[in-house]
Amino acid sequence: MGREFIPEMLTISQDGYQPWTDAAAEPQIKIENIVKTFDGFNAVDNVSIDIYRGEFFSLLGGSGCGKTTLLRMLAGFLTPDSGHLSMDGLDLVPLPPYERPVNMMFQSYALFPHMTVENNIAFGLRRDGTPKDEIAERVSKVLDLVQLGEFANRKPTQLSGGQRQRVALARSLVKRPSVLLLDEPLSALDKKLREATQYELVNIQQQVGITFVMVTHDQEEAMTMSTRIAVMDKGKIVQVGAPAEIYEYPQNRFVATFIGSVNLFDGPLVENQADHAAIASDEWGGKIQVGRGIGYSLGHNTTLGVRPEKVRIAKIHDPMALANRAVGRIKDVAYLGNSLVYHVILESGKVLKVTTPNLGSTPDRKFVRDESVHVGWAPNACAVVEP
Amino acid sequence: MIKQVRFLGSPKPGEGRRWVIAGPFLWFLIFFLVPFVVVAKISLSTAAVSIPPYVPLISWNNDATMNIALHFGNYHFLLTDPEYVIAYLSSLRNAAVTALVTLLIGYPVAYGIATTRANLRGPLLMLVIMPFWTSFLIRVYAWIGILKPNGLINNFLMSTGLINHPLDILNNQFAVYVGMVYAYLPFMVLPLYSCLEKMDHSLLEAASDLGARPLRAFVSITLPLSIPGIVAGSLLVFIPAVGEYIIPTLLGGADTLTIGTVLWNEFFGNRDWPVASTVAVALIILLVGPLMLLQHFQSKDEPS
Predict the structure, then answer these.
(1) Structural domains of chain B in order of their starting residue, each with its CATH number
(2) A261-385 to CATH, choices 3.10.560.10, 2.40.50.140, 3.40.190.10, 3.60.15.10
(3) pLDDT given at position A58
(4) Bigger pLDDT: B110 or B67?
(5) How many angstroms separate the CA of residue A170 from the nearest CA in chain B?
(6) The pairing of beta strand A56-60 with beta strand A211-216
(7) Chain A: nearest CA to B121, how far in angstroms?
(8) Among A14, A122, A303, B108, which residue has the fewest nearby CB atoms (within 10 Å)?
(9) How high is the ipTM of this complex?
(10) Taking CB atoms and an 8 Å cutoff, what residues of chain B touch A74?
(11) Across the interface, which of B202, B216, B224 has its CB nearest the CB of A108?
(12) A326-359, pLDDT tens digit by residue?
């Protein structure tokens, strides 16, 4: 079983800032029909995205999905085969990296090992010919921002992983780029530090007001930090949306299974009204009710997805007033501390994943292997997933 | 950082390591330190017509008294005779010029190999190493064929009409430099290559991202980070170049004065082993001194 998505830990800290819903807003970064091939392999395949000023935008996908290639094209380390890249109206493609108004935080941090923290951070300002006292002032300010004031004279080898990560962040922020690119900025940190740093990065981004474009393979990280996420697979954008949108309404099977965990049911559409619909699913053993109309005609083979934490589970004698109900038997129980994951075998043999919060004080809420149970969910808990 | 590797059955940590080091240590003790002590001993003697051709340091009188006679006169002689001073200085100059020129040629070569496509690096390195497969002596002789008045270069230049008389490029200092730079170039390229090849490419990307043009990035990042390679290569060239004998003899003409030729003359011409030994010991002192200083500064520089 893969890593379970734990919704309670999630706060969508970027909630409320939604420039993409404003038709009058002009995107800051325009990525249009970008194609990049390596030896005949389409690493980035006709990708178009608009990113707005002040966003924390994440490119999320597995390894080899093209997310890093896309980021490196924004930084200028790679040139697209075709398509347009522009930032604040400035055509980026012909510009070398050292002339682009963006800075990048590298996955390996790429700190200069022969320079002190201070000189690492000042490097970019010196290249711009910034006056000496202004450099000193800005370096000390950004060191305060990342809480590394007392480490100014250390070499990178004398710092811990977390401190190096902050130096890398400070170095990329000090030039006040109009866009900051982050390549897996937290992947080298251990889990505890990573979680703390997620919030810190978002705080810093909101303080400095710079657009962040982050590449990550970690869906939890993307969900926690982003205003919007672009899910990528095989060089293509699969879905772009706010974290809640992507989680609640995954457009297709890839997004539904990549972000969190999901139970999928296939079946022909048998009812379709404005306010409700239903599919007939053999795996479920009957009709599955959906709380809204579906844009397909009757008989269309439809896939429904329901998140494990939205499935209710109860003792067999418990009355459950839910439209979608079935009987099953507990096959496996996984104890995750803050939650429990049950694998319930339905009569059809289909295994349904169910997550419940660990409410230790109510013993009638605990189920053991081979116990017969009722499972069910509300009609508005499931989403239509395209194949 | 590798802490300690403990093998199964090793008595206690560190024991095995001691034995591994013992081998090379003994080797150096027997084949380097002992001969050096012998040479140092001979340098404190005086020449004599005997076999071996020097007065023994230790002699026994009839009344069982041991006499130890140490002559430091050879060292004094070395300082007072300008021939030796000139020989040392010209050897040091030859070595320094060789190290500098091999660095200037070798750095771009090593940089080029280190930054080329990965599948080309092996063959290119092979080309650097290939001359070693031919005898050193033959390669130096080949240079005579190239540089002599009716050699390759002069014949070519005459045939194109660029010159009327053959250039005088053999049996002089220039020929010595050409030969030494040629012979020692691989010793510069290899350590530089291994240093440059290890360098993290993302550092240059970071420099570029922060606004450094390629030349600036090279000066600020690549060059300082390749200093260990520059030092290693320069030492590998400089040290053997100081004592070089064959190249100055074959390419430098009759009156080339270097430590190598002086040593040869004292040993085989004058049969003055004590003076020859003194020359050798002085050379080692001359080389070891700066090396130890360098080591001292390097170890101080390393992060704690």
Answers:
(1) 81-271 (1.10.3720.10)
(2) 2.40.50.140
(3) 96
(4) B110
(5) 12
(6) parallel
(7) 20
(8) B108
(9) 0.83
(10) none
(11) B202
(12) 889 999 998 888 888 999 999 999 999 999 888 7
Write out the residues of chain A at the interface with chain B, using a CB-CB cutoff of 8 A: 75-77, 96-99, 102-104, 106, 108, 110-114, 123-124, 127-128, 155, 157-158, 171-172, 175
Q: Which of A104, A114, A171 sits opposite B225 (nearest CB)?
A: A114
H helices then E strands: how many in chain A? 8, 20
The pLDDT, as a whole number, for residue B12 is 62
> Where do you find CATH 2.40.50.140 in chain A?
261-385
pLDDT digits (tens, 9 = 90+) for A232-256: 999 999 999 999 999 998 988 999 9
Chain B contacts of A111, Cβ < 8 Å? 206
| Residue numbers in chain A where pLDDT is lower than 50 | 1-12
**Cα separations (Å) of A181 from A75, A106, A173, A219, B278?**
7, 8, 10, 18, 66
- Give residues with Cβ within 8 angstroms of B35, minimum separation 6: none
Count of C-beta atoms within a 10 Å radius of residue A22: 9
The percentage of chain A sitting over the pLDDT mark of 90, rounded to a whole number, equals 60
What whole-number distance in Å separates Cα of residue A67 and Cα of residue A182? 11
- Is the CATH number of domain A8-257 2.60.120.10? no
Q: The tokens 């292997």 sit on which residue?
A: A369
At CB < 8 Å, which residues of chain B contact A? 200, 202-203, 205-213, 216, 220-221, 224-225, 303-304
Contact check, Cβ <8 Å, A112/B203: yes
Q: Which of A126, A127, A139 to mutate to test the interface with B (most CBs of B within 10 A)?
A: A127
Measured in degrees and rounded to the nearest 5, phi and psi for residue B166 equal -60, 140
